[in-house]
């Protein structure tokens, strides 16, 4: 018999692109070994060497391929690497774009909040300034009214304390009479008074002084009415004011003239025992006028037509 060929002597070749051929060769080798085990045992060592060579060749090819890919990675020329780098770069640029948009939105929100806070602060400043101005005006008006009231009080007390010199007749001296001896009067020692009274007590004293003055004025008016049938002194009877030979009743429209030349329209609201109360128009400020002020010409009351 002739010597059989070894199944590994070149019946198949390794192809890197098709592993199925290698598997078919293995199946064929198994079948040949079953049919002729004796003959196949003689060529088995040679087949193992061939298989080992193929595996070594596959390893070397794979290693060379990996080295080639490694070199491509080092040179940044690997196709898969470049493909993924493009994706990463695109995601990076997109993220930068979104961050820039977010930054612009945040800046716009902050700017809007800043403008709103600025307007609110300006409005609060204007309100506080207006409130402060109104409070100062009210305080100054109160001080002005207090000063005017004190001035009227001083005028009333000054009128009652006026000194009226007594008129004396000088007679001619006879020739035989000696010259009169002029008596030297000592100057009164000025003493300082310290008033320790409260405001209420001072007001009560002023009221008493005014009442005494009015009583003296009433007595003088009674004596004048007894001697003179017609009088021009201001007076109040039955809730009516008599001034400048005219009667004024409550609620009548009048014109008040001041000593400094100013005048204003008013309504007579109260006619008491020794004073009248008028209400200025149109600010509705009440003003108290005493009979003494009318008598001294500090105020003049005139009738005013309502038409």
Automatic annotation (TrEMBL):
Acidic residues compositional bias, start-end: 12-22, 30-41
Biological process, per Gene Ontology: regulation of gene expression
Q: Which GO terms describe its cellular component?
A: nucleoplasm
PANTHER family documented for this protein: BREAST CANCER METASTASIS-SUPPRESSOR 1 (PTHR21964)
Say if the entry is tagged with keyword Nucleus: yes
Q: What is the lineage of its organism?
A: Eukaryota, Metazoa, Ecdysozoa, Arthropoda, Crustacea
Which gene does this sequence derive from?
Answer: SUDS3
Organism's domain of life?
Eukaryota
Q: For the region Disordered, what residue ranges are annotated?
A: 1-56
Here the segments flagged for biased composition (Basic and acidic residues) are: 43-53
Q: What protein am I looking at? A: Sin3 histone deacetylase corepressor complex component SDS3
Subcellular location, in the record's words? Nucleus
InterPro entries referenced in this protein's UniProt entry, alphabetically: Sds3
Task: Give the record's keywords alphabetically.
Answer: Coiled coil, Nucleus, Repressor, Transcription, Transcription regulation
Where, if anywhere, are coiled coils annotated?
Answer: 115-150
Q: Which residue ranges traverse the bilayer?
A: none
């Amino acid at each position: 018999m002739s010597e059989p060929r070894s199944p590994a002597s070149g019946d198949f070749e390794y192809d890197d692109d098709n592993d199925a051929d290698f598997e078919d060769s293995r199946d064929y080798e198994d079948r040949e070994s079953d049919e002729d085990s004796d003959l196949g045992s003689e060529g088995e060592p040679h087949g193992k060497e061939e298989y080992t060579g193929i595996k070594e060749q596959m390893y070397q090819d794979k290693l060379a391929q990996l080295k080639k890919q490694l070199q491509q990675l080092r040179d940044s020329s690997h196709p898969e690497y470049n493909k993924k780098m493009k994706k990463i770069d695109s995601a990076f640029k997109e993220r930068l774009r979104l961050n820039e948009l977010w930054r612009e939105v945040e800046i716009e929100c902050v700017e809007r909040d800043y403008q709103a806070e600025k307007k609110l602060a300006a409005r609060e400043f204007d309100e506080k300034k207006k409130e402060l101005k109104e409070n100062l005006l009210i305080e100054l008006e109160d001080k002005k009214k207090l000063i005017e009231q004190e001035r009227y009080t001083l005028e009333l007390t000054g009128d009652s304390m006026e000194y009226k010199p007594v008129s004396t007749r000088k007679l001619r001296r006879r020739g035989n009479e000696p010259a009169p001896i002029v008596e030297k009067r000592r100057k009164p020692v000025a003493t300082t008074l310290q008033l320790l009274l409260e405001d209420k007590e001072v007001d009560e004293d002023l009221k008493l002084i005014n009442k005494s003055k009015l009583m003296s004025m009433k007595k003088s008016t009674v004596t004048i009415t007894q001697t003179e049938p017609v009088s021009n002194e201001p007076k109040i009877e039955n809730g009516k004011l008599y001034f400048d030979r005219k009667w004024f009743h409550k609620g009548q429209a009048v014109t008040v003239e001041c000593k400094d030349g100013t005048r204003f329209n008013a309504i007579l609201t109260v006619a008491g025992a020794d004073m009248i109360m008028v209400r200025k128009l149109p600010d509705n400020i009440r003003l108290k006028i005493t009979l003494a002020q009318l008598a001294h010409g500090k105020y003049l009351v005139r009738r005013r037509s309502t038409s």
